[in-house]
């Protein structure tokens, strides 16, 4: 079967290869991967940015994918055969709080990811896709969507009338806008592009802020709609200060992305004296993924897909992601 392998920690280490097709053992399933999608994490992984946490080489890239169950092993419900499923990002994190061994079960490093024709998975590590979704749409769920769901609905428990600020218009951001809107929140989106802001307005954003025209957007948010209950912090070093200015006393900043840098000078005074909670968000459990799919089934939520590349053109998809001009998710068709 066809796979993409990372054989060294660089773009030059990406190679198309062939591996034997897997055979399911007891409690396992083989999934024909029909589509995959990219996250910023994948750029970091290819460059070796996760160190030991990235595991060894060679490794199959990408954590987000979807496909149909082709074979099941002993002890697995045979009615799963033919069903469209998505793998949980953390294969060892089934429920509850973040476990100590979660990182050892991450797909796309250290475990092999989804850029393979057929993927062997624990049957307990896959979840049925939302009703009526295509494999391409479902491939956006395991990392980006569940991260947004965890930030908005699990860790922050957003309620009607809350003010939620979302930075950017990438995959996590587009899902965060939709989940916050579903919760009845007033959604503010901060971006550098009016064209991108017009897209998220159609997803449920109520207030749009172009930070190139309004660099002090934290104060602008407070003045226009009041202090934020939750800020989806995706920018990192260059945006965290504005997030602290936007959030209310006792509010939450969900730390997710480091797009503008991973080292920030943090004004501790406002954080400490106003009881601001800085909450890191690292995807979610298998049960969180199931809950999210149920919520999607009861809504009109759909992913925003920027562009889709053929399987052999995966490196071009990475180039598109690195250019940071996309809106929503960048996808790759599966080899299955």
Coarse shape = globular
Spans of 5+ residues with little confidence (pLDDT < 50)?
A: none
CATH architecture of the largest domain: Alpha-Beta Complex
List SSEs in N-to-C order.
EEEHEEEEHHEHEHEHEHEHEHEHE
Class by alpha and beta content = alpha/beta
Approximate strand percentage: 25-35%
Number of domains: 2
> How helical, in percent, are the residues?
25-40%
The largest β sheet comes out as:
7 strands, mixed
Tally of helical segments:
10
**Mean residue pLDDT:** 95
Q: Write out the CATH superfamily name of the largest domain.
A: Medium-chain alcohol dehydrogenases, catalytic domain
Supply Rg: 20 Å
Task: Note the gap between the termini.
Answer: 9 Å
> How many beta-strand runs?
15
CATH topology value of the largest domain: Quinone Oxidoreductase, Chain A, domain 1
CATH class wording of the largest domain = Alpha Beta
Description of the molecule:
The chain has 336 residues and is an alpha/beta fold. It folds into two domains: 2-143 and 284-333, Quinone Oxidoreductase, Chain A, domain 1, CATH 3.90.180.10; 156-280, NAD(P)-binding Rossmann-like Domain (Rossmann fold, 3-Layer(aba) Sandwich), CATH 3.40.50. The chain has ten helices and 15 strands. The protein has helices at residues 40-46, 135-138, 141-154, 171-182, 194-201, 217-225, 240-246, 268-273, 286-297, 314-323, and strands spanning 2-6, 14-18, 28-37, 64-72, 84-87, 118-122, 126-128, 163-167, 186-191, 207-210, 228-233, 247-255, 277-280, 305-309, 329-333. Strands 3, 4, 5, 6, 7, 14 and 15 form a seven-stranded mixed sheet that branches. Strands 10-9-8-11-12-13 form a six-stranded parallel sheet, sandwiched between helices. A hairpin with a 7-residue loop joins strand 1 (2-6) and strand 2. Helix 3 (141-154) crosses helix 4 (171-182) and helix 6 runs parallel beside helix 7. The longest helix is centred in the middle third of the chain and has 14 residues, at 141-154. The radius of gyration is 20 Å and the shape is globular. It starts with a strand and ends with a strand. The mean pLDDT is 95.
